[in-house]
Structure formats: C-alpha cells, structure tokens
C-alpha cells in the first residue's frame, strides 16, 4: 500500500476531523452553542432598538396569523425562519403546501426569515463577540504563514459550519446582500503572494453553475494587502473572548468582574443619592410645617385690632 492508502480496493484517503464540545466551540459557535452573556445582553438591546421594533410591529399581524394556522409559535425573526425553512424545502421538492400559506409564503414570511441572518451580527459588538474568534484565528494563520512559523505548516484550513456562519462573516465584512446562503455554500478566504507582497482575497461560492464571486473585505480592495486586512480585522478580534463575555456577570471565582463592580457602584451611589434627596425633602417639609405652626400660634396671641 502507498502511504496515503488504507485499503487497496478503495482509492480514498481519510481526512481527520477535529471537533470540540459545542459549548466550548468559541471559533464557530460563539454566541450560539458557546454562551456569551455580553452577546446576549447586546442582542437584547438590539431587539429593543427602534429600528428592529418598527420591523417587528410591521410583521406582527403575520406572526399572529401563522401561529394560529401552523400551530407553531412564531413571534420573531428566528421563529419565522423555523417555519419558513421547512416550507421552502417542501416547495423545492414540489410538495403541496397548506392552502393558508399562499398569503404569507414566500412573502412576507421570507422577509422575516431573512432578518434572522442579519440580527446575530447587527451591531459591531455582536460582530466582535460572534465572528471575532473565527476572524482572529484566520488572521493568526495568515500572519504566521507570512512569517514562516505556521505550525503545522498547512496550505488549507477547512471549517465545517452553517449558513448562519457564512452570513455572519459576510455581514461583518460588509459584503452580505441579505440573501439566504444556499445549501453547500462556502467562503474561500485566501492568502496570496504577488510581487513579494501578501494579499487577502475572499470568494463566495453560492452556486454550482457559476464561478465563485470575488467580494470586497470591508472598504479594502478585492485584493486586500495583508497589513491592511490585519488593521481592519483587529478591532473585531477579542483579546480574551471569555473575559469579555463575562464582563456582565460574576467571574469564575464568584467575584464580580470589573464591569459588574462599576455597575454595582453606580447603582449603589444612585440609591444613596435618592435616599439623601428623600431625607432632605422630608426635613424641609418638617421645617415648613413647624414654621407654619409657630406662625399660627403667634398670630393667635396677637390681639385683633378694634
């Protein structure tokens, strides 16, 4: 047998797949399977923002209708996607859809489902906490490859992820066209060498009949110099993802983190200030009552004029 062969009758080379537990998969599962308190807090803030509330209000009647007709509770973009996806698959394979879907499928159910791909990386902080670990690893590999100290010195790093991962990376790079990434889509982020200079390119393969599309990365050219790529990506890469995520909760030792301590101090100071204000008002009121009583008593002692 040749070194790469494991069976003389099967011409196939096994490729090892390295996995980590879902709750520990920070690179691909940040903010999803790998929980992040700060990400959840920021997502909640985004959901309550005027822009999102306006869209949600616009879709509220549709949510109510599909909940009643489907028996599935639909109340936001994510739950809308859970309903839209099976309808899309059934439609693709020419299954007959329930008659009630004609008024909501594909639109406006598709509109709501599309927003589920934008919401996870709506704000820069969400992008940093959700996509930052993956971008940081890619950036690290590129730097080490350029410097000649990448170990193991591979030419390809492949990540098996979801359509949501592709959408999140594209949205962070400013290249997402708010369309569903088709099944088996892929992103190819490549380090290239041209005239002794290193560049980064990004191709989006979303079709089996078309060549991959060359997309810009942030405001950089499609052929982005590596140093510029690093400077653009760096703000989105957490120095310590877990520490940032826990900045709104207790630390692992049970001691409040710096952010929590500041928050507690502000709240405590506010309570003290409020109590001081209440006490001051109470004392002032007591003095006014006392003065009024004294004045009334004095006036009673003064004889009236004839």
TrEMBL record:
CDD domains: HP_HAP_like. It is an enzyme of class 3 (hydrolase). It catalyses: a phosphate monoester + H2O = an alcohol + phosphate. Its EC number is 3.1.3.2. The keyword Protein transport does not apply. The chain crosses the membrane at residues 259-283. Keywords: Disulfide bond, Glycoprotein, Hydrolase, Membrane, Signal, Transmembrane, Transmembrane helix. Gene3D superfamilies: Phosphoglycerate mutase-like. It holds the Pfam family His_Phos_2. The keyword Mitochondrion does not apply. GO terms for molecular function: acid phosphatase activity. Belongs to the histidine acid phosphatase family. This is acid phosphatase. It comes from Clastoptera arizonana (Arizona spittle bug).
